[in-house]
Design a protein that fits this description.
Length: 58
């Protein structure tokens, strides 16, 4: 597991929390920020997974 996967997972979790809080309090801006952060985390996690796969291939 590399740095990208860890940071991606953290962003994904933080995004989920922001999204949930935004929904709960009716703050659409916070909810949207959470969705964006969650998507960024998923992408970063995927990139990290690809890097791991390439590194393990050698």
């Amino acid at each position: 597991m590399n740095k990208d996967r860890i940071e991606g997972s953290v962003k994904n979790i933080k995004g989920s929390i922001k999204e949930g809080v935004g929904k709960a309090i009716g703050d659409t801006k916070l909810e949207t920020e959470g969705k964006v952060e969650k998507a960024e985390g998923k992408i970063q996690n995927t990139v990290g997974g690809i890097k791991d796969s390439l590194r393990n291939r050698d």
